[in-house]
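Feature request, filed as a ticket because there's no other form

It would be nice if the structure record came with a short human-readable summary line next to the tokens. Right now we just get the raw output. Example of a typical job, pasted below so the devs can see what we mean:
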Amino acid sequence: MSLKCGIIGITNSGKTTLFNCMSKTKAQITNFAFSTGKSNIGICNVPDERLDKIHQIIPADQLIYAQVEIVDIPGLAKGSNSGEGIGNAFLADVRQCDTLIHVLRCFDDPNLPHVDGSVDPVRDIETIDFELQVKDLEQIERKIQKVDKAARVGDKEAKIQLETLLKYKHHLENFQNIRTLEATKEDQKVVNDMMLLTAKPMMFVCNVDDAAANGENSYSTAVKNWVKENYNNAQVLTIAGKLEAEIAELDEADQGEFLKDVGLEQPGVNKLLRAAYQSLNLISFFTVGGKENRAWTVPAGTLAPQAAGAIHSDLERGFIRAEVIKYDDLIALGSENNCKTAGKLAVEGKNYEVKDGDILHIRFNV
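Raw output as currently delivered:
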């Protein structure tokens, strides 16, 4: 399952710095607003200590982590919905993403001018929200025009759709994001094909200076207070982008000592990647031994045959059973054989709901 995370924010907020830390693709960083002509795209692994520990117990030729695609979208600004700054083309890039990471400038730097003249991350949130809301409202209004014609001639389904669309329109006109709208599953079916920008899961990253790497500053505190009052359960992470860039340049062997020196347990981008992964209610299960130890991505609640299908369609088509070992049991008992002897290997059928961290052996016949 492919996951695409979009990094958005005001220009000069540190988006591309974080993108470079997360991705093996290194994008150019500039101090000039609107100097970037395209979105940057990179692939990165989702760190998972569980897979590392499994690999120590059950070695394989390869270790393959879950992956996400990261899209660094050029800086948005007031008027982006009508073509200002980077314009409509990059709002289309936002539309293709599954989840959004909003990077906020929470540091002062006289050599890096803010496009609005002063640093105010809460104002930046409101600016971006407004631009995305306007674009969503345009889409909703266009669909209302189409559906209204059918409703006027007595189409019952069109009348139901129109009622839903008007509810969405009213919410946006009150400067609210679609993700905060109390919508039923039937409501969502009406707008699913529109990939509304403000319906996407959103998390916030406060990009602070090195001094606040282990805590907060006045800017990040203001963001956390604002998000708590205005967003439903949105995550807020604090990351020192400049420091993360230094960490990313080090060899893995040297990173541990550097992290210890600056008082960090792990790179902040690792937390960010895991948070992005979890924002869509995704889980990982593992297959082990032989050629590869691998993490696979499925939505929470996936049944065993569909999880097998994430590996290969033949496994879902010919699914017989899944032999399941819990991660904690493997770590506690030290081997698959020990788990079997202790009765910790379960044989599950087609109705088994795969859990995060399950180790699966799929039995199938095609």
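Something like this underneath would help us a lot:
The radius of gyration is 23 Å.
Residues 121-152 form the longest helix (32 residues).
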